[in-house]
Please model this.
Amino acid sequence: MLPVLRGFQIAAIAAVILMSAWNAHIVFRRRPDWPTMAINLAFWVVPVGILVALTGQPWKSYGLGTALVFVLQRIHWLKWRYLSDTWTAADFRMVFERANWLVVRLYPFIAAFVLAAIGGLIAAWVLLPAVTPFAAPARLGALTVAVVFIALVVRYRRHHVFDPFGFNTFGHFANLVFSLSSLEYQPPQLTADSDYFKERAALLDAPALSPSTGLPSTSLGPTAPHRSTAGAAVHTGRSRPDLVVWLQESATDPRVFTIPGAEMPHLAMHEPDARTRASGWLRVPTWGGRTWLSEFALLTGLRHEDFGPAGRGVFYTVTPHLRYSLPKLLRAQGYHTVVLFPIEKTFYNAEAAYGDLGFDEVLNPLDFPEWQGKSLSRHLVPDSDLCAYALKVLDRPRDKPIFLYMLSMIQHGPYDTNHALDYGLDQTALPRATAARLSDWIGRMRTLSDDTVAFEQALAARPGLVWTYFGDHQPNLEGDVPMVPDLDAPQFLTRFMIKSAEAPATPGRCTQTIDAAFLAALLLEHAGIPLDPYFAANVAMRRLCGGKLIDCEDQALRESYRTHVYRDLAAAARGRE
Model:
């Protein structure tokens, strides 16, 4: 038994040596200045120093501290590998919210990694040799060194501006420290005046402009009538249409992928018909995950990038400060505003954020007896069930028009690497695992299309109702899949549809790709809802820049528009309530 134990000890020592070499590479590689290097080194020195101070065991403390640093670095690598996103201080906030643990069930390898990491950390302590403990002066010295490095981290935590790709320059740990700024609300930084935007907006032929404000006349107040330039009828009072918006998880048109040898299916949900008022490509602000960023763009008409590092956590940091949103405008127009989504209400601070945005009611399947109280962390909600609950909400007795915003989940990854290769994917050059994931995703999209068509048929019997559905982002297929080459940044393109139960005289078409931040105002136009000052400006910007926002060719116009939104309209100046 002793030789076996000795073998394990030798293996543990060898592993610590290898991890030490890797940690040193991460800490000291091409760092721009000594404070940045000191912050990276602190993540190694501090745990070792504290362990030495507590136990007096130098080798065990070094082994456990080194293993801990290695595990933390691997956590960053895993997030980047599967979500294409760096880790940030906000991730630790999410970890302590139980509803967010749904991610572990979706990606079970995370649980396996955690268990393996815990086992490795225990082994690093148990297997490394024990020696006579350090005396009190040496232990105090180790604690002093740890405290000095902690002080350096605190002193230089803002030494560089957080950059999602900054780990390549600053290192994984220093960039994590710099990301502390993502926990703090930061007002948008403005570099222009608003005159240029207002002058350009005043030249638009519709809607008419108010000479007193330089804004479209639809901004005169919630009671001012507004006829949509998209051709929708004016609705007033209780005759205003019910509105339904469905955010469809990981959904886009499969034809965005162009793979020699494969046949991407045409889905009925993406084909315009007699009830279509507008349709086309939608530029979303995220890829493969982070649905809340697309939600934010839709519900506010804003881009999260305007808020710096804090914009990555908009549902925690930004929503309490917003004066305008789609549900707030609709509430002012007499609507009852409802969210229906398929996960726990505290997931990513959703319920609180929806309240900030102006929703009256937040529902999930647990609010419906048909769900039978099943755990939302262990059971995914089929879209057909979600649609059935949506119809129940629409059928409730009420004396107000309703705005129902619903989100699906079941199309989210991970995708099956052993799935059958359909759609000719077995004849392509894609790696087998990537092709299987794509085949799995397309199958889910076909089911989504069927559910969407069935839902639309149920909605078609409701006079005046206008509804929209769109994809929040593309799927993460964990591999490169060729995309249509003549589209600009196709990895950020999904599809949208605006439809009405009452067919317009001429089915609408959207020949431009539009930014997700413009979708809400487009829906309001087609529904004939009066616009407030903010959404009137949003419409003007969409027309002036051809549906583009962050990638508008006229950057001076974009900056002037931002100043109008954030300074003139004070769109993000509301204090916490």
About this structure: Residues 182 and 309 are 4 Å apart (CA to CA). The mean pLDDT is 85. The two ends are 66 Å apart (CA to CA). The longest strand covers residues 276-283.
